Fold RDD domain containing protein.
Amino acid sequence: MRDRRPPQHYPSAPILRRIYAFLLDFCAVWFVSLLAALPFFQFVVFFTGWMVLRVLVVARWRGQSLGRWAFDLIVIDPRRRRIPDLIDLAKREGALAIAGYLAVFGIEYGLPNGLSFSILISPLIADLVVAIADENQLALHDRLANTLVVPTKRGFSLDVRVRRWVALFSDRVQR
């Protein structure tokens, strides 16, 4: 039986950065999937776009999708100490794509009805709660594919830049 705990020498990525990176990728794919009119075709476009952005792009860009690049994160396979192969990435992101589309469906069609909205968005919330509760911040999709999201110095540092802009703006407003 393989050990599901990552080695202790990998630093944990801050959960808020992971949320921001996910939201950036989620909104980008959701925007593209809005072009499809019917829910089934919207699911096909969303799933395909998600797999392209979060599997093929990650394999090509050394572990970073658009959101992970913007927030200086990288996904790795802690056992082999490198980028996960396509099968592991597909398992990881396939589970997230289904949960993400359920959230899209809940936002678009279930928002007027609070109960259906809550039910449809609950897989993403459960995944987030597991990541917050775990000491190594492994979410359900990380456990499924035995992957780990760690910080890196390669990226755009969008959260740091926004904090600087807000501080600069608040300083100018106070003067």
Summary: The longest helix spans residues 86-109. Residues 15-174 form one domain. The chain has one domain: 15-174. The chain has a mean pLDDT of 91.
